[in-house]
Amino acid sequence: MQTTPIRGVRAVSSTAGPARPDSDITEAALAVAGDESAFERLYRKHVNRIHALACRMLSRDEADEATQDVFVRAWRKLGSFRGEAAFGTWLHRLAVNELLGRRKALGIQRERYTADDRPLELMPAKRHVSVEHTLDFEAAIERLPDGARQVFVLHDVEGYRHEEIAEMMGTVAGTSKSQLHRARMALRQHLDR
Q1: With CB atoms counted within 10 Å of each terminal CB, which end of the chain scores lower, N or C?
Q2: CATH number of residue 150's parent domain
Q3: The pTM is what?
């Protein structure tokens, strides 16, 4: 089957490898051509994942607006999507870059490293975890020092490698590794209480 790319979106043919299980590439091509309802379908499919990422990387208070900003940027940059990777992968990377940039633009000066565990100590410990009293792991992650939290989310939750994290955050891989270790130790100490 021969397909014609639409304004920079590479079509995926049956000889290019296994077919994508979703229609994101088709929807992206339609959106690039001006079909707003196609972009809306992409938005509805991916908004929860992007919002969860924003909650983890920023705060719940900033997540709604940041999520909208990610999709505004995605709409503007949609022409740069070439279809070489899954649309969700492209959107996720765009979101991470937007969220990291948002922190800088807001002028948030957060510590990469703190010598104490006071942020986690402020959260009441729960010794007996039951169905009725589950530990709010997301709240524990939010209380991590910002650098450690970002590395923890990008590495352990989102699956990025240390080299990729270092590039995104403008550090070196060793810093990413030490921040991840710090985050894990702080979470472990909090969970053991």
Answers
A1: N
A2: 1.10.10.10
A3: 0.57
